[in-house]
Design brief:
By secondary structure, this protein is α+β, with helices and mostly antiparallel strands. It is 45% helix and 23% strand. It has six helices and five strands; from the N terminus they run βββααββαααα. The strands form two sheets. A three-stranded antiparallel β-sheet has the order 3-5-4. A two-stranded antiparallel ribbon has the order 1-2. A hairpin with a 2-residue loop joins strand 4 (61-68) and strand 5 (71-79). Helix 5 (118-130) packs antiparallel against helix 6 (136-150). The longest helix has 15 residues, at 136-150.
Length: 153
């Protein structure tokens, strides 16, 4: 499992663990989830406790040991779906941005593993369709690459 830091929006990054399979492609700590949602860490635990009928161990979160500067420590890690549920319950402007990013994040195996935000791909696609500034061959090549990306959505 490796640790990744990616940009959610201007001035807001997210750090999470990424494994080698679809099942473990996104795991985020309580501490990091609280930080990106701009809430206190105990609030994540409170939300988990108060919503036991909607948030499930093994599906939305798991307990595991993770490496820290002080050695290995027990931690709660949230899956992508669990982090989306917490973001939805928090329901702040920041949590809505985080939720949108989480919903658009895609795991891509055996390639550079980066999220491909749908809105950016679609914006590029429409800009290229309207643009006459590029040479036709280059414009066509860009459109073909963007068509490949659109298939992820």
């Amino acid at each position: 499992m490796k640790e990744l830091t990616l940009k959610i929006s201007e001035g807001l990054n997210i750090t999470f663990f990424q494994g080698d399979s679809e099942e473990e492609h996104f795991l985020i700590s309580n501490k990091e989830l609280a930080r990106v949602l701009d809430i206190k860490k105990p609030m994540v635990r409170t939300i988990k406790h108060r919503n036991q009928d909607k948030i499930f161990e093994g599906e939305d979160w798991t307990q595991t040991r993770i490496p820290t500067e002080q050695g290995f420590q027990q931690a709660t890690l949230w899956t992508r779906n669990g982090a989306i549920k917490i973001s939805q319950i928090v329901n702040s402007p920041q949590s809505k941005r985080v939720k949108k990013w989480l919903e658009q994040y895609r795991f891509v195996q055996d390639t550079e593993q980066v999220p491909i935000p749908k809105d950016i791909v679609m914006d590029l696609y429409h800009t290229l369709l309207k643009s006459n500034d590029l040479e036709p061959e280059i414009r066509q090549e860009f459109l073909e690459h963007l068509d490949k990306l659109r298939k992820f959505f």
